Fold:
Amino acid sequence: MNKLQVLLLILSIGFISVNGAQEKRQIEIEYAGKLTVDEENYPGAKILTRDDQQQVHIIHGGSSMWSDKAIYYSEDNFVEAYGNVSVKQGDTINMTSKYVEYSGITELAFASGDVVLTDPHSIISSDTLFFDRLKQQAFYRNGGKVVKDSSGTITSKIGRYYMDIKKYQFVNDVVLVNKESTINSDFFDFYSDTGFAYLFGPSTITTETSKTYCEKGFYDTKLEVGYALKNARIDYDNRIIEGDSLFFDNTKSFASATNNIKVTDSLNNSVIKGHYAEVFKAKDSLFITKRALAITVQEKDSVFMHADKIMVTGKPEHRIINAYYNAKIFKSDITGKSDSIYANQKTGLTKLINIPRLSTGDQFSTAKKPILWNFENQMTGDTIHLISNSKTEKIDSLLVFNHAFIISKDTLSENGYNQIYGLRLVGLFNNENTLREVNIIKNAESIFYARNENQELIGIDKAKSGSIKILFSEGDIEAYSRFNQVDGDLYPESKYPKKNKFLKGFAWREDERPTSVEDLFRDDPPLELPVIKGLDDYIPSGEFFDSDMLERIKLAGKGEPHKNKAARNIPKKSENLLEFPNEFSHSKWLKVGVKATISNIKTPNQKDVADLVKGIGSSDGHLYQVLNNTYGTFKFSVWMKGKGKTRLRFQRADTDYAVYATLPITVTNTWKEYTLIGNKSNDGSKLRCLISDLQTDDAIYIWGAKVLAVSEE
Structure:
């Protein structure tokens, strides 16, 4: 040990003996190459510099610090370190920077200049950094970056690291970038050991193949899975998926959605709705159920398809829709129903078919043949094909295979029906999508109510033939021709055999016909949606410079605040008497009959988002803080916009809640700062500051609450 080390040790021991109360917290000088004193520039300090062998070495409470130069204030138990500063705590925490201030009383370090703090799991870098050894927390407030091995790099304006639970809390302009994705958020909680990320406020997760948006969400950065809540949306190429809750697995390009789902296909102008869905991007497939509805959006007349389950498959330019079980189709000029429906969006082919099912008790596929209605005509058969032009939105033709049956009610008779039956039907439509021509091929049978030009009934025509061609006009039979007729008779209505009034297999099913989009769901069981618990609302962290730390800093000043070196880099406490002035969901804001949540509405400074406060009780709702101030003149201001009425109030904070001052407010859709000034007498009570009188239909965006003491009596 050289002479300088011995001298430093004696100085240190001598100080400890005089200040026994601080013995465990006294900074120790382990090594220095040179010691000088400069009372003019550094009164009460010893200036330590390195030599050619090693840096200045300082120890405190199990931590070591090395630097090229150090200024040690033994009376204040405070040190400043300059040049290639390195701090090491145990085997886990290392910090390097150009400059460090450290108080042995507060155990708070302030570092600046290319600060880098590392632990086994991550690296924090910032221009300035606070490190609280007592709480084992690091904090930056002017921008920083965290590198977390495989999870990526995170940047934000404000960052805080809780070392005991390996948790990061980032605020404002948060961006996480790794090789698989980029995450942008306003409020971002990240757990270093698990890679779990919790997102709050407007947030996006962008990958090479998708973009996910939510205002509340979770993402496992290791497994690349997560879920999104609150205005959740996923963009997959030409598809947009929206729902109350979205789960996604980016490794499989898979997503599932629950409750109030909407899937928009921008390439094919289609929309799929329901309450549970699964999307496999790699397979170009979508499955949806629970009131599933597929909408082919057309300029003049959209097509709606509903079934128990709907599957959409195929590349974007060749989408195929399969609707399974109790399938229905609705368009203003044509509706249909069958066990299942197949639709090819590229070719314009729609098939109404029955699929045999193994489940017992389901007789739909055998007892209920596929059916189409076009104005007054009802058509059934074992299978029905409808061919249309997706570009012109025009229906071209109709094919019915096996047991083709077309029925139209004779509008002038009480219970008469025109009926045509055969093995196969070919129908052609006019430009108004009305059935114009029908050809019944093979084994044709017919019953017509024949009328003259004055619509007087001539008789009832019943016949059999090889085939029949019928022309329709405005839904009525205009003309018909029979080919290879086997037999046929025209009976006066009074002599027509009643037992032959209907052809075999006749079934008039008008009561099944959907007459609106809502009517498609007529036969569905009652809808019971699951309750989505999801994530708890965002809980802002307490202040880094909390009352405990501020008390430590105050003690370090020994009653002389102007000489308190431990306080010189601490941010000045705001003159605002309110805590958490922009975080109305925080528990510091006491709430009665109101709920506060984070919104996506930009604040007047265009940098943050406001909170939305809604009335939820049966009486006037309010939120407030109680201040310790007992008298004086105060100014209460807050920015507001939205819908409703409210009041700013100063009240006595005791049982009678006497009002000192009040300001009625009717908010508008434009941001405006409202200000209340009031005087509180010295009556011994504390001051209560309220935003009050919110009703259940009030929804007000609030930001920037502030209470200032204007003067004192």
About this structure: Confidence is low (pLDDT under 50) at residues 1-24. The CA atoms of residues 223 and 300 lie 46 Å apart. The first strand starts at residue 28 and ends at 31.
